[in-house]
Automatic annotation (TrEMBL):
Region of interest called Disordered, as start-end residue ranges on this chain: 37-58
InterPro entries: Alpha-glycosidase_related (IPR050985), GH (IPR017853), Glyco_hydro_31_C (IPR048395), Glyco_hydro_31_TIM (IPR000322), Glyco_hydro_b (IPR013780)
The protein's name in its UniProt record: Family 31 glucosidase
Species lineage: Eukaryota, Metazoa, Ecdysozoa, Arthropoda, Hexapoda
Signal peptide (from-to): none
């Protein structure tokens, strides 16, 4: 018996250890045991290693019924103990079963241990992530320190958020975007201002002063002043334009209304012509958003502005000196100085920030001049020097009187060619031999006459040599004062610019201007000063200018007190009333017509209420010649374009004509002009005068965007082709060729249709509103309790 047990032990085969991940294959165990039994019966001594290695036999991890069946008993289905392997030799079978079951138990034990370890590792990772996240959020909370209650500033990222009293975010800004340094320190005591402001410094790069002040009407303002500490750092701040609408600055090359519809790289914030430059002829360093936040930049900051399109829409300010716009450095290092003001809503904020009490120093006759311009048109005589003669003036005013019965007076604007050469400041007696008598005739007809002057002296003028000798003109930089800096402007091919920063040029000029006015008895001068880019590139004045645009303000203020001024062609500050500001020229096209409304709305909110639009039909380049009845030729705008332009101009502050309505020889145009003149006289002019007084008291524009009627209505912020006279008349002109209908939006309230007299509720769109060629859509505000 012992020998049999020994043989059974010798027949037990120990299999190689399998991969711990795979399940043990029971079929392999059974077949190996059976082979051992057959070898014992037949005295087969062959080695088990001569057969295929069981490790190479891979089966599915799920056991099949065959794996659980005893070999040779597949069909019996017996599962009784008598038929089992243990019934043959219980001890050997028991040992074999124990050995066979050993790998599986070990695997289960190891699997449980692995699962426990994995769980512990995952739990540890989760705890670490939570700790890091909590620390990061806490750090950001600490870094985003609250200043002056409503500001949160992250010093590490230089992100600033401004909130209103309700906790709503009004403005998000990224400050100091050009500072490639994160560590920020409090300023040294010697650099602090001791006025309650906060001072932070990025070592050897930039210093920031943050201050707070309040205005009336619960307007809160925050002043930020960057001082560069390195010539390589140009302080740059960017403001998020997403989820809000922005207005202000000035006319852009894209004619964007609102501003986020445009986009351009950094350009100096100086006046120019949008055909060649980014900004137009009238500017102000003032921007306002629909959320109730406004940006006001200091006049001495060498300001560059951009509207970025990527990675997201941003309005950016940068302080940077250069060789032209900001060549006269105000300090050793550039400074970016501006204020952020916030209010309860956009309209109230704008009203509080507007310049009030424009009546100060205004005489009664000044008010009469404003009323006359709002009541009477401006007639602009030909710009061709050869055709501008005394006879032309006589005939032009005679045609006005005879062709349009209700327009018998107004201002006649004579361009700079009343002189022989620009800068003569004397009448060309060859073309105007008896102008004194002609002026008397114009006075009797009820006209006011305006002469155009410019601060330029042509090299062909007899005044040029005298001005250079007396050092009355701007000199060339890097040379001595006797070499004048020359420029070009319009038809002037070469001329010097009067240096108004000295004490000699203005008295010299005023003496000549008074002499001409006293002799010919005209009413006022129109100052055509060009733009910043009209200045010579290497200009140098006796006293440094902040920038080329500062010249305009000095020139206007110096001249206005000595001779009457009718209007100015460009400005960066509101001239004292009754001076009007003239809009830039627009091309004679439908695109030019569509650009008028965004421009006049922008200038209005910048603080220029008294505006003179361009000529009806546009200021255009000659395209087609039209034969007139007298056999001469003249280029005229498209007839439909002229009609639609005239309809819009009838509701603007001043109607300006370059071509008489009768020039077309069409009776319907003359009849429509008379009808519009009656509408203007009865309905429009009283409102213009009323809101001119409001402008003088509160600084608000006469022509307003719809959001000034209801700044809480989001639809009012995006309407680009409507405007209102004060808050009482809404005008929606046709601006597309061949169109006889349009979409119109009315703000909240009750409005009376100017075409059919029907009453309409506001805060809604009127779709496919019908407007015939001889009609213009306008709506008059009615009392809120008006019953339909």
């Amino acid at each position: 018996k012992e020998s049999e047990e020994l043989k059974d032990k010798e027949n037990i085969v120990i299999l190689p250890r399998r991969n711990s991940i795979s399940l043990p294959n029971l079929q392999d165990f059974i077949e190996v045991g059976q082979d051992a039994k057959y070898a014992d019966d037949e005295n087969d001594k062959s080695d088990i290693s001569s057969r295929e290695n069981p490790r190479n036999v891979r089966r599915k991890s799920v056991l099949s019924p065959k794996m659980l069946t005893i070999p040779g008993d597949e069909e019996s289905g017996s599962t009784s103990p008598a038929n089992s392997v243990t019934s043959i030799n219980s001890l050997a079978s028991l040992l074999r079963e124990k050995i066979q079951s050993l790998p599986q138990s070990l695997r289960k034990k190891k699997s449980t241990e692995y699962k426990t370890k994995i769980f512990v590792v995952l739990l540890l990772i989760a705890i670490i992530v939570l700790i890091v996240t909590a620390y990061f959020l806490y750090s950001q909370k600490i870094l985003a320190k609250a200043y002056f209650e409503k500001i949160k500033f992250n010093k590490l990222k230089r992100h600033m958020r401004i909130y209103n009293n309700l906790g709503n975010e009004l403005l998000f800004a990224k400050l100091g975007t050009t500072i490639r340094y994160e560590k920020v320190l409090p300023c040294l005591p010697t650099n602090k201002r001791h006025d309650g402001s906060i001072c932070l410094e990025w070592m050897h790069r930039a210093r920031l002063y943050l201050d707070y002040y309040e205005l009336e009407g619960q307007v809160k303002c925050y002043n930020l002043k960057w001082i560069s500490l390195s010539p390589d750092v140009s302080p740059t701040d960017c403001f998020d334009m997403a989820n809000s609408h922005w207005y202000g600055g000035g006319q852009t090359a894209e004619f964007a209304w609102p501003l986020e519809k445009g986009g351009h790289n950094f350009q100096p914030f100086i006046t120019g012509k949008v055909e060649q430059n980014e900004w137009g002829n009238v500017l102000k360093r003032y921007f306002i958003s629909s959320k109730g936040a406004a940006l006001i930049v200091d006049d001495e900051t060498p300001l560059y502005v951009s509207i970025r399109n990527s990675p997201k829409k941003e309005l950016c300010f940068k302080a940077q000196n250069d060789d032209f716009a900001f060549v006269n450095r105000r300090s050793d290092m550039v400074q970016l100085n501006y204020s952020i003001c916030t209010g309860s809503n956009m309209s109230k904020l704008h009203s509080h920030l507007s310049e009030h009490s424009l009546w100060d120093g205004l005489k009664k006759e000044d008010g009469n001049i404003i009323d006359s311009l709002l009541t009477e048109p401006v007639w602009e005589i030909t710009s061709d020097k050869e055709k501008l003669t005394e006879e032309t003036i006589y005939n032009f005013t005679d045609d006005i009187t005879n062709s349009v019965g209700v327009l018998k007076q107004g201002h006649v604007l004579i361009n700079e060619f009343w002189q022989n050469h620009i800068g003569d400041f004397e009448l060309d007696t060859n073309r105007f031999p008896t102008l004194e008598k002609t002026m008397e005739m114009l006075k009797r007809r009820g006209f006011r006459v305006v002469f155009t002057i410019q601060p330029f002296i042509s090299t062909e003028s007899f005044n040029f040599a005298e001005a250079v000798k007396k050092e009355l003109v701007i000199s060339e930089r890097f040379t001595n004062r006797r070499i004048p800096a020359l420029t070009r402007y319009k038809t002037l091919q070469s001329g010097a610019v009067l240096d108004i920063t000295n004490n000699r040029s203005i008295p010299w000029l005023v003496e000549k201007l008074k002499k001409v006015m006293d002799k010919y008895k005209f009413d006022a001068y129109y100052l055509d000063m060009g733009t910043a880019y009209t200045m010579p590139y290497y200009y140098e004045c006796e006293k440094p200018l902040v920038n080329p645009d500062s010249y305009k303000t000095l020139f206007i203020n110096s001249i206005q007190g000595s001779v009457p001024i009718f209007g100015v062609s460009s400005a960066i500050e509101r001239p004292k009333p009754p001076v009007f500001v003239v809009l830039p020229q627009f091309e004679s096209s439908w695109e030019g017509l569509r650009r008028v409304i965004p421009t006049i709305l922008t200038y209005g909110i910048l603080g220029y209420p008294f505006l003179i639009p361009g000529a009806v039909g546009g200021d255009y380049d000659p395209l087609d010649a039209v034969f007139l009845n007298n056999g001469t030729t003249k280029v005229l705008p498209d007839q439909e374009l002229y009609i639609r332009w005239l309809q819009m101009a009838a509701f603007l502050p001043v109607v300006r004509y370059h071509h008489l309505p009768s020039t077309y020889g069409e009776q319907n145009i003359s009849d429509m002009a008379k009808s519009l003149a009656i509408t203007r006289q009865n309905k429009v002019t009283p409102k213009l005068k009323k809101f001119a007084r409001v402008s003088l008291n509160l600084g608000l524009p006469i022509i307003r965007p719809l959001w000034m009627l209801d700044s809480e209505d989001p639809q009012c912020h995006v309407v680009t082709d409507e405007f209102s006279i004060g808050d009482e008349i809404i005008v929606a002109p046709i601006l597309y060729s061949g169109s006889r209908q349009r979409e119109i939006y009315l703000p909240g309230g009750v409005w009376k249709d100017g075409i059919d007299g029907s009453l309409r509720k506001g805060s809604r769109w009127i779709h496919d509103y019908r407007v015939e060629e001889n009609e213009v859509a306008y709506f008059e505000r009615m009392p809120d309790d008006t019953r339909f």
